[in-house]
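Let us practice reading a record.
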Amino acid sequence: MNMENMEMNMEMNMENMEMNMEMNMENMEMNMENMEMNMEMNMENMEMNMENMEMNMENMEMCFSHIHRRLD
């Protein structure tokens, strides 16, 4: 392989590496953003679940008291 080819190859490799690095950086950024969004959504979902559980507990209590009253 002659010198010109080698030089061209090296140049192309360098360019490719640069492009890859840039793309990796962008991907990492996007991943970070996605992770943040997911965490936020998870937190919100957990809160909603907690609220729902509370409501369920209240409903169950009401049902039990109702049944208890009926039994008495």
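A brief commentary: Helices lie at 3-71.
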